[in-house]
Design a protein that fits this description.
- There is one protein chain.
- The protein has 5 helices and 10 strands, in the order αβαβαβαβαββββββ.
- It is α/β, with parallel strands linked by helices.
- It folds into 2 domains: 141 residues, Alpha-Beta Barrel (TIM Barrel); 109 residues, Lyase, Ornithine Decarboxylase, Chain A, domain 1, CATH 2.40.37.
- The protein has a 6-stranded mixed β-sheet, with no helix packed on it. The chain has a 4-stranded parallel β-sheet with strand order 1-2-3-4, with helices on one face.
- α2 packs across α3 and α3 runs parallel beside α4.
- The longest helix has 19 residues.
- The chain is elongated.
């Protein structure tokens, strides 16, 4: 209710979406329910308070969490959103017409299943809102668009050999572009740059890749298999378009904004 009061004081003429907590969102890599979203028993008091202050709530929003790993979490969330719509109707508030289904999407094989689940759930729970004028559905597919569009290339700045173990220092780390990917290894793919360093069919070694800063926690990959690299070789990290440079810092003088970005164009006829 404090948030509703704040909105009233800052922007009393705006339209609002009430964000609800997603039931059982633990299947996502990073769930948001502990920090965001109204619980079922909080929906009616919040709607009443907004209505009392003359604020118009036009719909419901939710977010299942970052990188959903199963599709049914969206169905449960859409069912909860429908229940919130019904509460507004019971309170005889102006009819809500916006459903924001948030994000959590990745460009992978699960996406088609999630899309089908969402379409079926909307049809099942919002059959009385099927015309375009009755229900506007929004989504927030940030990672879906950005993640696979960028590739990071980092220079090998240093090397240490300890028996069969290979350790490398590269020109970027967890205080830069790897702030999140270093902990989110399900998306990161690492390989040597084949054009400059042809390593095909060579022996691989257990390898650790460190970032450039003085912090011992600055470890990009703790254990991976790589061929023998030398200083000034390059490592390629794929799927680096989401939550990388946007979360970077200038710690230790390594300026995140100084990293150049190159646009690659391909011939559609090839």
């Amino acid at each position: 209710m404090d948030e509703v009061d704040k909105i009233k004081s800052c922007h009393p003429k705006c339209s609002l979406l009430l964000r609800i907590a997603v039931p059982n969102d633990k299947s996502s890599w990073r769930s948001f329910g502990a920090k965001f979203g109204a619980l079922p028993e909080e929906v009616a008091p919040l709607l009443r308070h907004a209505h009392k202050l003359g604020l118009r709530v036009v719909g419901i929003s939710f977010h299942v969490g970052s990188k959903a790993s199963e599709s049914q979490v969206y169905r449960r969330a859409i069912a909860a959103a429908r229940a919130a719509f019904d509460v507004a109707d019971e309170l005889k508030m102006p009819k809500m017409h916006v459903l924001d289904i948030g994000g959590g999407f990745k460009a992978n094989q699960l996406f088609d299943e999630i899309a089908e689940t969402i379409n079926v759930a909307i049809k099942d729970y919002f059959s009385d809102h099927q015309s375009d004028s009755d229900l506007t559905v929004m989504a927030e597919p940030g990672r879906f668009f950005a993640e696979t569009a960028f590739t990071m290339v980092a220079n090998v700045m240093g090397k240490r050999v300890r028996g069969e173990k290979r350790e490398y220092w590269i020109s970027d780390g967890i205080y830069g572009s790897f702030n999140l990917p270093a902990y989110d290894k399900s998306s990161m793919q690492i390989s040597p740059l084949q054009i400059l360093s042809p390593h095909q069919n060579q022996v691989t070694y257990s390898s650790t890749v460190f970032g450039p800063t003085c912090d011992s926690l600055d470890t990009v990959v703790a254990d991976c298999k790589l061929p023998e690299l030398k200083r000034n070789d390059y490592l390629v990290f794929h799927n680096m378009g989401a939550y990388t440079t946007s979360a970077g810092t200038n710690f230790n003088g390594f300026c995140i904004s100084a990293i150049p970005t190159y646009l690659a164009f391909t011939n559609a006829n090839n």
